[in-house]
Backbone:
């Protein structure tokens, strides 16, 4: 398997190495996270640090718990009645499962992009403007329009849709819809963007565009991406975590995972022996 | 496990499919036949359904359409000043009315400030309105038949007019006092029976020109007409045939009784035989007068511009009563007079010979006018079929449904949202859910009983009121709306809600900004279907007294009212044949409203339908 991930982005656990490309303390820290759906345990004692301003990829076979873990970071799992989360997840040192923390504010800080593009069945403008509007980020109409334009531009969509801001967002192509969803997510200026297999419903060209976008966004945001596509993980991420049967098997700089994995399971998976 | 790896996967009994074998061919043929049969069953089922529907609609249309038309007799009615305004005060009254009108508040003013002195004051034109306009109309009709002066004839003439025949005239005079003292050309509404006759529920005619020279003995009263030919001979034969048939029927009846009851009915049998013998004697009698009765077709002679109803006849001479007076007793030459037969016997008709004669005369003079029956939509219920309308029921329905909608749309939608989106999933919500589903299947009369016990007896709300009807129907429709709304909410893909939550919307914001608007078409469809259900509901409203005979159009939520389906039910119970048509017409109006509502629901569904 050919992996062209930049190995120089290696990042050590203590977060002090200069060669890693992103220094400073980790953005998200998970300790002993266990997740249960009713009786079934979906995640077992997951410990991971997600570095600030960079891309971290979660890979693993279907049903291994990587999406579940991703949804723990913005507490999206709260919407599933049978789901129970144990352990501790902190963002900037603050426990996000703290009772005093407002989950809505958390989600404003932790944006999410879903597997299937899911724009609101409203205009392109309204799709992007919705978040800023409910959070009161714009005081005037022109401020709001400004936010929308900038967000669309950063999502690389402005050129394509600037003449049809009032057309329904659902009328765009799949790739455009997904970039619209990214624009919608970044319009509220989150610190972290979670991406749950954002390209699995897209063709290779649209996928390439999204990957390009992720590459640009990583300067300003902490991005966590779940993907089934290992080349994608290798291309876009600096660190990769491999999940298997609810366990976080191995977490290391992307180059290490793909070129020199420590665990036999990781090796089997990335060489396509199972999964 | 290990066996499966080592031994062949195919079981020993497994055979390879052979498409050319006769068994396979037979199977294919059987499959084709089964498919063909299934399609046939489907087609037959569809045909039967269509047939039933077509018969139903055709039946309702054929019965109901005539009720939308009404016949009137157009006459010049002299509006006599001494009848309407004996004190000659009309100019003052009108001035007073105008002053009062100027002093009245507009409806907005009345709404906010209540009625003032002028609003409460009686109508100054009331003395003009109180006059006997029906009397004027009746007199005009009498005048149209000069020479018809007998008490019986006059009563029959009066019976042709509806008791409300003078009402439009009253309104016209009240609006324009200049009409007083003039002859006003006005259509006078015919009574229900006369109207039915004009709509074809009368009798076929036969006309034959007289061959001999007819000589009437007088112009009015009981007269005799002689003819020089045997013009009436074959009518006499017909009557005798009729009589002998009747005698035969009587004898058959007597024989039947004798076999069945024997001695117990001896007296009755004797009477029957005596009657039969009497009839037979009349048949056997050669050359004599024969008497006509109401069980035989009516015979009339039209001669010298008049009409005579024959009571007795022989070959060349008849005697009878003059209905329309003759111009003279001059001899009518061959071909100048006619023998008219009303084929349906008088006893089998609702219009007597006299009324038929009057109506036919009016028709021949071109005075009968057919017009759209606006009164059907403009008046409340009435005991007179020709005056009865559905305005009261329509307004009652509108008020009732308004209450229903105002209650069950917000309550139903909010309950659905709470249950679907916010309620904790536990035993309690399960029980509530099951009960809501069960409530949707509860017979509607039970809701009526509930309304009677709770709203009327406990809360003491007024009976027959649209308010209570609306409350009861809201209870009835609520489960339907909750179920439909929940289904609509459930149909919105969770990805939309997740998207909203993902950008930091609260659960409530996600539901109200995104899920609810997308579910709205489905909710609207469910609500409209529910309202259509409520519109057609009768049973629960019977229990709360909306089944009363109410003439006034309801003016408020608490005034006595009835609704369309109950009006249908009320009219269907009445014996007058004219109400049968009214019933069908009211059903048509009801169906039109149902079609409109369902059409709206389908339109909404089609227009806002989304595929995800």
Residues:
């Amino acid at each position: 398997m050919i992996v062209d991930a930049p190995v120089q982005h290696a990042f050590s656990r203590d977060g002090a190495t200069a060669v890693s490309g992103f220094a400073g303390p980790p953005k998200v820290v998970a300790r002993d996270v266990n997740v249960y759906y009713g009786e079934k345990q979906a995640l077992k004692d997951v410990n991971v640090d997600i570095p600030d301003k960079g891309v971290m990829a979660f890979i693993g076979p279907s049903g291994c718990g990587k999406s579940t873990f991703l949804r723990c970071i913005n507490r999206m799992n709260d919407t599933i009645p049978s789901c129970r989360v144990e352990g501790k997840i902190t963002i900037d040192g603050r426990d996000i499962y703290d009772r005093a923390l407002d989950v809505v504010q958390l989600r404003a800080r932790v944006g999410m992009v879903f597997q299937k593009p899911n724009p609101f069945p409203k205009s392109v403008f309204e799709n992007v403007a919705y978040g800023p509007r409910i959070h009161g980020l714009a005081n005037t109409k022109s401020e709001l329009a400004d936010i929308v334009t900038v967000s669309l531009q950063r999502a690389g969509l402005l050129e394509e849709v600037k003449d049809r801001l009032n057309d329904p967002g659902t009328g765009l192509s799949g790739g455009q819809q997904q970039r619209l969803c990214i624009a919608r997510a970044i319009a509220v200026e989150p610190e972290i963007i979670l991406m749950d297999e954002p390209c699995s419903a897209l063709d290779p060209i649209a996928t390439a565009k999204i990957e390009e976008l992720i590459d640009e966004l990583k300067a300003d945001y902490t991005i966590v991406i779940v993907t089934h596509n290992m080349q994608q993980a290798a291309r876009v991420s600096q660190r990769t975590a491999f999940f298997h049967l609810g366990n976080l098997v191995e977490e290391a700089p992307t180059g290490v995972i793909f070129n020199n994995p420590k665990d036999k399971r990781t090796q089997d998976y990335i060489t396509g022996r199972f999964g | 496990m290990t066996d499966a790896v080592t031994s062949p996967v195919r079981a020993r009994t497994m055979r390879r499919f052979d498409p050319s074998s006769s068994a396979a061919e037979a199977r294919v043929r059987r499959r084709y036949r089964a498919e063909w049969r299934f399609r046939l069953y489907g087609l037959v089922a569809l045909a039967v359904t269509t047939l039933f529907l077509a018969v139903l609609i055709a039946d309702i249309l054929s019965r109901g359409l005539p009720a939308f038309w009404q016949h009137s007799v157009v006459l010049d009615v002299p509006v006599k000043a001494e009848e309407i305004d004996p004190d000659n005060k009309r100019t003052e009254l009108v001035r007073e009315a105008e002053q009062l009108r100027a002093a009245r508040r507009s409806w907005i003013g009345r709404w906010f400030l209540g009625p003032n002195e002028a609003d409460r004051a009686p109508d100054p034109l009331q003395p003009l309105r109180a006059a006997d306009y029906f009397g004027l109309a009746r007199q005009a009709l009498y005048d149209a038949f000069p020479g018809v002066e007998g008490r019986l004839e006059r009563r029959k003439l009066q019976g042709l007019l509806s008791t409300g025949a003078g009402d439009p005239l009253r309104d016209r005079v009240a609006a324009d006092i200049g009409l007083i003292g003039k002859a006003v050309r006005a259509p006078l509404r015919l009574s229900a029976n006369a109207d039915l006759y004009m709509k074809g529920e009368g009798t076929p005619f036969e006309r034959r020109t007289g061959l001999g020279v007819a000589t009437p003995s007088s112009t009015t009263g009981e007269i005799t007409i002689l003819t020089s030919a045997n013009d009436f001979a074959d009518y006499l034969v017909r009557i005798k045939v009729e009589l002998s048939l009747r005698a035969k029927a009587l004898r058959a009846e007597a024989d039947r009784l004798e076999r069945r009851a024997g001695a117990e009915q001896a007296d009755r049998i004797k009477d029957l035989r005596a009657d039969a013998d009497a009839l037979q004697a009349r048949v056997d009698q050669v050359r004599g007068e024969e008497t006509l009765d109401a069980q035989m077709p009516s015979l009339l002679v039209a001669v010298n511009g008049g009409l005579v109803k024959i009571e007795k006849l022989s070959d060349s001479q008849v005697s009878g009563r003059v209905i329309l007076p003759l111009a003279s007793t001059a001899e009518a030459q061959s071909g100048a007079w006619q023998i008219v037969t009303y084929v349906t016997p008088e006893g089998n008709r609702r219009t007597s010979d006299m009324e038929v004669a009057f109506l036919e005369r009016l028709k021949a003079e071109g005075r009968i006018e057919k017009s759209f029956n606006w009164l059907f939509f403009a008046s409340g219920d009435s005991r007179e079929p020709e005056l009865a309308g559905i305005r009261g029921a329509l307004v009652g329905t509108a008020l009732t449904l308004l209450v229903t909608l105002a209650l069950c749309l917000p309550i139903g939608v909010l309950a659905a949202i709470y249950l679907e989106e916010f309620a904790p999933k536990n035993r309690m919500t399960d029980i509530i859910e099951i009960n809501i589903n069960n409530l949707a299947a509860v017979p509607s009369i039970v809701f009526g009983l509930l309304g009677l016990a709770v709203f009327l007896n406990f809360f003491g709300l007024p009976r027959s009121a649209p308010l209570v009807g609306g409350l009861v129907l809201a209870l009835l429709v609520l489960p339907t709306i909750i179920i439909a709304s929940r289904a609509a909410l459930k149909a919105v893909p969770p990805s939309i809600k997740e998207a909203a939550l993902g950008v930091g919307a609260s659960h409530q914001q996600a539901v109200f900004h995104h899920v609810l608007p997308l579910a709205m078409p489905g909710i609207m469809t469910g609500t409209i279907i529910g309202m259509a259900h409520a519109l057609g509901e009768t049973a629960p409203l019977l229990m709360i007294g909306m089944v009363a005979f109410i003439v006034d159009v309801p003016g408020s939520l608490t005034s006595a009212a009835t609704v369309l389906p109950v009006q249908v039910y009320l009219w269907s119970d009445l014996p007058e044949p004219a109400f049968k048509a009214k019933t069908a017409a009211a059903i048509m109006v009801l169906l039109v409203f149902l079609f409109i509502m369902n059409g709206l629901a389908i339109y909404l569904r089609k227009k806002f339908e989304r595929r995800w």
In short: The first strand of chain A starts at residue 28 and ends at 37. Chain A touches chain B through 27 residues (CB under 8 Å).
